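Sync notes, pocket subgroup
Present: LS, DG
LS reminded everyone that the earlier model was apo-only. Rerun requested with 1-deoxynojirimycin included. Inputs:
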Amino acid sequence: MKNIFRFLFLSTIMSIVLCGCMPNNGNDSTSNNYTVSKYDKQIRELMSKMTIEEKIGQLNMVGGDWDVTGPYIRADFKDDIKAGKIGAMLNCYTVDYTTELINLSVDSSRLGIPLLLGYDVIHGHRTIFPIPLAEACTWDLDLMEKSARIAAIEASAEGLHWTFAPMVDICRDPRWGRVMEGAGEDPWYGSLIAKAKVKGFQGNDLSDDNTILACVKHVAAYGAAEAGRDYNTVNLSLRSLYETYLPPYHAAVEAGVGSAMTAFNEINGIPCTANKWLWEDLFRKQWGFNGFVLTDYTATNEMIKHGVAANLYQASVLAVVAGVDMDMVGQGFLKHLNRAVENGDVSENQVDKAVYRILKAKYELGLFDDSYKYCDKEREKSEIMTPEHILFSREVARKSMVLLKNKNQLLPFSKEIKSIAVIGPLADNKFDMIGGWSAAGDRNTKPVTLLEGVKNKLGDHATVLYALGTKFNTTSTAGFSEAIRVAEQADVVLLALGESNDMSAEAKSRSVIDLPGNQNLLADEIIKANKNTAVILMNGRPLTIQHLDDVAPAILETWFAGTEAGNAIADVVFGDYNPAGKLTMSFPRNVGQIPIYYNHKNTGRPYNPDDSWTSHYIDVDNSPLYPFGYGLSYTDFVYSELKLDKKEITENQTLNVSVIVTNTGNYDGGEVVQLYIHDLVGSVTRPVKELAGFEKIFLKKGESVTVNFTIGVDDLAFYRKDMSFGTEPGEYDIYIGGNSDAKNSIRFLLN
Ligand code: NOJ
């Protein structure tokens, strides 16, 4: 159940309002304590030998040349490493290459301080797991921790110390291309995932050879970009920041995350990279964040275009004074901090704090004991893409899939079929089906396509036909006739539709989120040709698929499912695995409904079909096509006997809620039992429902189970009128069901 994440905030509100963001005179008003490390003595000793240039060098991160993940700024990094001007690098991996780089830092620089090497290991390193939005649909926290653990094992076996993950930005707008990297729209569930991921990456001891430093990002509220356009302005209320966007970052801090990344956007007019309130007051003082803060890619430089700094000197001062420790790629700190210290715009103490935090991470990783500890050729050979990792990626993939529609139980297909046609732009397309941010994953040869997965599953027992049908961005119907021909010949059809790999992730916002190109048209033709057509969707965001829902008998959302996608889809399609995934982001009916999310407010005029003066559209329903928490199974689950152990509780008591769930269908299967709370009357308006608990159960056909939840004060507390966090007496409704549209409710009173 819910954790309490909160504090009293009147002072906070004041500091938000007052928070200055121009260069100060160098007198730190910030917390002047370092969070003392067990390596304190070593760090201080080392720092005492460092020149100011060498200190500033530690705050400087440059991009390597194995990947480009932003506007490229070339640094002559080899000479700069030797000169002690670089503390960290991104986008370099493999043991050979990282050994060479570490060697330059350790053997050729004056003080021999090892480099810190980071990379965007977002959903696996070489073994690619489903995209995070898909993984969230498993509702399986242990599984998400384990996939992060495996990603850390593989990344560390290739010389990496650090991942820029987890990305925990809550988002209610599927136009934003980066929804594929997060957990979806719910702050509470997103917080649980944030913790699981940090634990998975960092393990129990950062100094182990196979653990890596995590980085919570993008702080804060990056997912609230106006109109879903990446890098756009964020404009939100303090309440919305606290209620919706901050909880997952806080959860990551509670889990001991070692670093945090500033978001590109502004909050309340102040870019996050210059936001002293965010870093010094909230993260460090209130939340006790103990790691270091790095900017996002050139975010310091971008403060010039934001219009809060006239030049890179000012921008760099703003960032350091705000409590930012490391500058990603933009070179502002390297070029200007020395002068800023001389001028008194930044105190040397502020620089020292940043250096301390970065060195602390390096010590904690064990890089001073053995700088080459992650450069192990043996591990690189034996711990990457192992059969165990690949098998686990198949398990995660099938658990991530969400059955959206299954008319007349078209799925699962029988393995006794004589023929099957596999059609569509994603039917046999390794490159696109692995999704964005696939790190060092080899997208050309490694992913198992749907066609391959079907062939692996059916062997020689059936004829497997294939046709491309169409491409992503075309109006040409040249491939249709061949696709129709194979569809007509086959007993059943799998039609693989969706987005290409480059339509989601960073800088990939879309204003129209329909199936791109003429894929709907292809679907019409194929379904006409063969009524036993199941659509396999591969995509990085919720799409507007009302048309598909109208015409297709079955739709399986498989997202971008990673290395083993094709095998995992075949497991589901042929009934070796009964799908149990549930959406963590609403699917709108059309773009006009966005932002759309289940935990909205009621308004003063909630929709009443008998009263046109209530909140609605005249051209579309208010409800999403598929709500948060939704997903079908090959079997059916019936909920009954929702009960409370008492009708009233006080703040010191807990409440037991129970429900009986019965598998009434013909298959064994899993279900995510979800509990939502509605606070009927508060000093401020409250959402119509908020997720406060879930349990994943597995029932044999015909089996029943009683599922119990305990509700306590943590689950009922919220930010009250004065922004203090706590409960208010009054009535609450509890809903339990298989998705956020659950109607089954029961009421109790908090005295
Ligand atoms: C920019 C992205 O916003 C961030 O998420 C990523 O970690 C960096 N580039 C580094 O690639």
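DG: DSSP finds 23 helices and 26 strands in the chain.
LS: The two ends are 20 Å apart (CA to CA).
Action: DG to write up.
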